[in-house]
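Before a colleague's protein record goes any further, I have to sign it off. My question to you is simply how this chain folds and whether the tokens agree. I do not need a full report, just your reasoning and any doubts. This is what I was given:
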Amino acid sequence: MALNADEKKKIISEFATVKGDTGSPEVQIALLTQQVQKLTEHLKLHQKDTHSRRGLLNMLSKRRRLFNFLIRMDKDRGEGIAKKVGMAA
């Protein structure tokens, strides 16, 4: 359930901290959140798709690690991204 290029560009432009930013934790968390949402919808239709479920769990854990890193480095930025993407802080 990969994101297409237009979706990625839109998310990157919305969450980028500086022009040309694609690797900041905010952008990575936003991209992972969008992928998680798409994959969750897929799994609602295909409950027995264990391979996709495993990928979803990997994405969730990676997103949580990025979020924890951001909270440790700058609590305000972490709380801001949590509100923007709808994560529980």
About this structure: The helical segments are 5-15, 25-45, 50-73, 75-85.
